[in-house]
Amino acid sequence: MAANQTLRLQNMLNPESRVFEVDRVAAEHSTVIRTILEHFDESYLAENAIPILIDVSDDALAKVCEWVTHWKDLPKAADVVADYSKQGGTHGTANKAEETEEEGTENDVIDSPWNVVFFSGVDAKMLYEILITANYLDIKPLCNLCCEFIATIIRDKPIEEVCNILCIDMEFTITPEQGAAIRDKIIRDYYR
Amino acid sequence: MADIGTVCTGPEGVLLTGVGLYDDPRLGEFKAPSRRGIVFHDACWRLLEEAVRPAPVALQRLLGVCNSLPIPRRCSAPSLGHEFGGAAIADNVSHFPWEDRYDEPEFLEGDSVFGKNPYQEQPPTLQQTAPSSQPLNKDCFASLPQELCAAIAMYLPTADVLRARLVSRAFWPLFEARNSSPSDWRWLYRRTNNTFIGPGLRNRRRIWDLLQGVVDTLAPVWNELPPALPAVWSLDPVLRATYSRVGATGRLWGQGEFRTQSIAVPATLARMSVYTLGFGDVEYIVGMSLTTTTGDTIRLGYRSPSAHSVELTQVWGAAMVSIAVYTRSPPPAGSFQQGSRLRDLGVWYPTVPPRNLCLHEESFLPLKFHIIGYRPLFWCHFGGPGGKYLLHLTGISVTSCLGILRIRFRFDMEVPAEHRSFGRLKEEEEYEDVVHFSLDGPGGERIETIKMRHHYPRPKEASP
Asked: Is Transcription regulation found in the keyword set (chain A) (predicted)?
């Protein structure tokens, strides 16, 4: 099968969803799509779009496609695991060094200014959808990147600010009296 | 009902008897095998086995230690010399150290937790509501899968994760359940937390901490003398039969001697070391070693890791209850009657009276009575420095019951507590007589004589 083959993706939960075209090498970041490619022949995939069955917007799916396309040359997570297994658990530092120069590593991805731009225009709902799409398609680097980005939002910030950034209503703000009642209940339930 | 076992001596040596029972540790009866021994609560015994693991409990040594525990005055049970990790309270104000001075704190009626094994308790099933499966209108993260929440949490310190729990329901389950059975692990954490440890586990840890002292006590190794003593240490049997034995012999306030070792102390003795062992709040001598100028060393008693010189306040029978010295001639007659000998040779509590305090030793029993065995002397300087309180003395109260238990001095001014009472007594019981003597003050009375009848037991039946 040609490495430069173009695959088509479509969200089947949304009848009006766009069909996204992604290079095969980029789509292989997804372990789910890799598995599909192993089980469907080329002719079928040429005629049919790969179904995406997750309730996300086209915009989020477009962002995911944008990300895998940009980082299509990054070593695939599944390949790294396979190489690791072949080498009997050793990291193979020499090979890794070569890859670093040519293709980059996950650390480069995390620290990349491109990713900063990628996430800069993303609102909370979009961030959530990118994360669950990456999780659904099992795109580990993107999934980790989203988790770390959310952690960055939460880290060292007061609750009010985090709620504001993530557009969440503060439904758990408690009064001092409520706090005292909760502490009393904890003492009653656990320490008596 | 709780299980008990007894460490006792049987025909086949020291053994742990079968299991007995008691239904109430305070008021009920022990239904144990009818052998005299040391009773152990079964749960405590299991903890002791854990504490000494992998070695088995040294029953012979344990029984020896228990039998050597001192029995306080007017008490039938031995004293361990500590407060049982808070289960008892030492009353040092109204009791002397050689008396039964441990009281139980207030009676805890029906506290069933002490009979339970806290490790048999299982965390309750989690009652917390799981996050909603439908995202809330204003919280798109509410339906985030738990594995993603956990992945986000991995990038955060605990404090931030806890804050995140207040931001979104999605982060609620992070500290709730981590396996298929939703047990409340926070419950278990709080039950075992050092600060908020529950009463059952606290009691178990109290026993465990006490057992560490028991393990240390069992550790010392007895130094057997070689069958053929080197000449420098060997005791001439002829001299041994001839010479008299003096010193701090006889019973201390322990239960007596268990093992005796006799050696000759050579004139070339260069160094003497004592081996000590801490138990309760007291450090005891358990052994000693003697070294001559030529480097010959002999060890007596038990050998403990701690070998040093200590200032001794008391010696009791953990191991060494008697140190005797044979002299070449009997003590000169009348030598104990000399004026200052009592101050120097008696066992005084809490301190030796100062030199400027006249003791009137002729009014005491013969000195030999006071320096053999453990018969501490205590004193009260009720007249105050230079007798300055005497002019304010208004009365004397004597509490007695088969002997004088306490004398109180009453003054018409504020006098420090140590000058107001001679002897320690918690409270006067009904059967105790209290006789009051009033003094009218200076010029009002003239005391010519004070007669007092007191029964001194013979040395063989004496107790402190």
From this structure: no
